[in-house]
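stuck on whats below:

***
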Amino acid sequence: MACAEGAAITGHCHCGAVLITIPGPPEQVTQCNCSLCRRTGWIGGYWHPDEVIIDAAPDALNPYVQGDKMITTWNCKTCGAHTHWTPITASPDRMGVNMRMFDPAEWQHLPVQEVDGASF
């Protein structure tokens, strides 16, 4: 069941070790075709880092930094789900959350922005 506009939404990785709370649905979701997003099934929503709550034990997440070193992607150490990314050299005002961590009713109706990350 979808939340009312503006209501906080909580999702989690497959095993539940990583809980993510966002302030509400994004205006759109992003689907990228870069090698990482394609392989992890990433569908992104984006917020300021201060607006996202990641609730997990300190050792529950595994960081991964891809070659361009712009972001750190995080996945659950237990179930492997790719949950979110945080900036390294990318804008510190934005972080990405994998919308697949939430009930599809919360985001499947949103417009999809296709990003050609494979060409970068």
Notes: The domain at 30-119 is CATH 2.170.150.70 (Metal Binding Protein, Guanine Nucleotide Exchange Factor; Chain A). The chain has one domain: 30-119. Strands lie at 9-12, 19-22, 29-32, 44-47, 53-55, 61-65, 71-76, 82-87, 95-98, 112-115. Residues 15 and 27 are 28 Å apart (CA to CA).
